[in-house]
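=== Structural record ===
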Amino acid sequence: MGDIGYWQLLRSNRNFRSLWLASVISMLGEWFNTIALFFLILEYTGSEFLLGFLFTVRMISFAIFQPFIGLLADRYNRKTMMMVTNFAQIFLALGFILVDSASDVLWMIALSGVMMLLHGTYVTAERAAIPNVVSSENLTTANALDAASWSTALCIGALLGGIVVSNWGTDAAFIIDSMTFAISTILLIPVKIQQNVSEDMKTPLFKTAFSNIKRGWLRVYKESRLLRIVFAKSSWNIAGGALAGVFLVLLGAETDGYGVAMGFGIFFFARGVGTGLGPIIARNVLKDESKWPGLIGKLVIVSGTFYILVSLTLEMNLLLTVILILLAHAASGANWVLSTIMTQRWVEDEMRGRVFSIDMLFMSIAFSISTSIAGYLVENHSLGISDGILFFGSLMVLSGIMFTLWNPGNSKSVTQA
């Protein structure tokens, strides 16, 4: 049976349906939380640097334990890992309610980092688990739907988060976030994940942790096409972190007539729509999978080009800015889903968690560097929004060109399992 449609996949595959719903609902709450954190930082400190620092702490927390998280995802049941991390975040999300002054901002950022560490565990386990619940021929549909749904959650969560914060305050957003983690945990209960665990994983955990993590790195290093693809997401994030993590927030804060929280919602809504459309378009248009490795860098170039156009047309029209941001993130969404599918198909089940942890590690480091530099330049060197978007958009184009020129020429089939 060939690749099937989105609705047919959801209707026919109960395991994937539950996994998908759990992810969508928890991500919906995550964006309520994120908008509220943006608002609190600007309300209590007015610091652009702390906005960048928030993203840096979150992404470093996401990244720092990824090698060990990948090891756990290849050793223990991936469903259990997702349930435990969701359950813990039910209570952690409520901790933000205690924030009521500028003196609380630093521990608020630290708490957000802890939650992002748990989120990183969830994401790595989920990415590794999708091929456990979906057949190989349906991976394109499953990943396109997963990415589009993440984006829908971003759109709705950011927009509704802006409305909730504007009308009922940040505490309401944090309570909603906590409730979504509870619902997500319940939805995961019926999911059955049958995964293969290698003999290497049946040895004492800490005694063999280093050697087993090393096997994951060697698995990537020894296959040149895979080594290239694990850098696909980071090739976008080295500039995209600054653009999506700092300058979209600043654009939202300075949008006249909507208020700060609603301004955040508008631009993150555009980001979400674009990130959702990209994978859907890729699934329906880019059917020749042998060309996917060559398209990854070109999609980064396209995304950067649209951000350059944002900088050049910023004062013209809000709708035009929103459309250009949407198109930039459509390209980035396609980059994300194509690289994810290739990794899932090329890597065996027993090693998939460790390989995805390497992918997530590089992406997070790139994002952290980008947001830190952007926040520092804005706060200490008066880098304006338009000039900042132009600079980082150009950097993204350069990154895409370099990635495109990196051609290891691996002869293995793209669709090899």
Q: What stands out?
A: The longest helix spans residues 349-380.
